[in-house]
Design a protein that fits this description.
Largest sheet: 5 strands, mixed
Strand order of the largest sheet: 1-2-6-3-9
Oligomer: single chain
Number of domains: 1
Helix content: 25-40%
Structural class: alpha+beta
Shape: globular
Strand content: 35-45%
Order of helices and strands: HEEHEEEEEEE
Radius of gyration: 20 Å
Number of strands: 9
Low-confidence stretches: 1-31
Number of helices: 2
Length: about 150
């Protein structure tokens, strides 16, 4: 016969009851943190700090035509504070964000774009062709070399 300590059982039950609202509250905070915003002509979400925000961003990413990830090369650690600028073929900026990352999803109309991302004084550029959201959307990543002191 197995004997169960009533105090231990009560603590387990309390943990189960408390875990559900905590998880729901965390997901609600993640949704608030990465709320849909508009910047000029484009709608976007920006975030990805913590597991709840990452899950929310990954789940909602297919709604956007361009999905970007910013990290350090080697360690793969996400980075924030990326200066982001997206321009059309004529060089006109159609989207800019001073503090992007680690994940940024943008809804752009179909077309050709140049994506310029700067982090700690280093700039990377990628050309991208957008067909639409979902499967027609594009996923791109920017990876910067970590600092020399790491």
């Amino acid at each position: 016969m197995i004997r169960i300590n009533r105090s231990a059982l009560a603590l387990v039950g309390l943990g189960i009851v408390c875990a559900s609202p905590f998880t729901q509250a965390s997901l609600a905070r993640a949704q608030d943190a990465v709320a849909i915003r508009s910047n000029g002509e484009a709608t976007y979400i920006n975030g990805g700090i913590g597991d709840n925000e990452i899950s929310y961003m990954r789940e909602n990413g297919p709604k956007y035509s361009l999905r970007m990830e910013f990290s350090e090369r080697g360690s793969g650690e996400f980075v924030t504070g990326v200066n982001l600028d997206i321009s059309n073929p004529s060089g006109k900026s159609v989207f800019a964000l001073d503090s992007a990352g680690p994940l940024t999803d943008v809804m752009l109309p179909p077309g050709q774009y140049r994506v310029r991302a700067s982090y700690e004084g280093k700039t990377e550029t990628q050309e991208v062709s957008i067909d639409g959201a979902g499967r027609g959307g594009k996923d791109i990543s920017f990876h910067w070399k970590g600092s020399e002191t790491q």
